[in-house]
């Protein structure tokens, strides 16, 4: 695939990427992420929670005791971040975009493994209705 002309796979990849870009859910997720990234206050709070979480985790793993005051301060910071609509939207957007990436990766991976277009059951493990999903 190192030729100057596009292969059939590359053409289909471009079509897939165009479909992803045009998808309304993807567009909404990107808009949520961009709104978060444009707000310095929300980003600062997000970074503060991430940093505090790393420090909390480091203490926990090293066996250092975490004081009740530290624990309460961290919980308060987490609640403040969770209440921020831009951060909540960003987290939702990340999940949505990751789901799309996982979906594409799963189908392509299973196609390469099987040598044919896989069924949904092959990609997702067959846990749909009738096989113990618990929906009945």
What's the SSE blueprint?
Layout lengths: L7 H15 L1 H14 L2 H23 L5 H16 L1 H30 L5 H5 L12
Explain the overall architecture:
With 136 residues, this protein is an all-alpha fold. The chain has 6 helices and no strands. Helix 2 packs across helix 5 (85-114) and helix 3 (40-62) packs antiparallel against helix 4 (68-83). The longest helix has 30 residues, at 85-114. The chain is elongated and about 60 Å long. Residues 128-136 have low confidence and may be disordered.
Helix content: over 70%
How would you state the average pLDDT, rounded? 89
Query: Helices and strands: which structural class?
Result: mainly alpha
Rg from Cα: 21 Å
Number of strands: 0
Major sheet description: none
Can you write the helix and strand succession as a string? HHHHHH
Low-confidence sequence ranges:
128-136
* Binned strand content: under 5%
User: Globular, elongated, flat, extended or rod-shaped: what is the shape?
Assistant: elongated
Q: Please give the alpha-carbon distance between the first and last residues.
A: 48 Å
Helical stretch tally = 6
């Amino acid at each position: 695939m190192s030729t100057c002309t596009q292969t059939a796979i590359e053409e289909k990849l471009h079509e897939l990427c165009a479909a992803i870009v045009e998808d309304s859910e993807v567009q909404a997720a990107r808009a949520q992420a961009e709104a978060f990234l444009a707000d310095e206050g929300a980003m600062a709070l997000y970074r503060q929670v991430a940093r505090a979480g790393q420090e909390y985790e480091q203490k926990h793993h090293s066996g250092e005791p975490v004081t009740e005051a530290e624990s309460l301060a961290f919980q308060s910071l987490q609640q403040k971040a969770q209440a921020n609509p831009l951060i909540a939207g960003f987290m939702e957007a990340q999940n949505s975009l990751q789901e799309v990436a996982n979906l594409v990766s799963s189908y392509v991976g299973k196609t390469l493994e099987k040598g044919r277009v896989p069924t949904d059951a092959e990609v997702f493990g067959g846990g749909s209705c009738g096989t113990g999903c618990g929906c009945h």
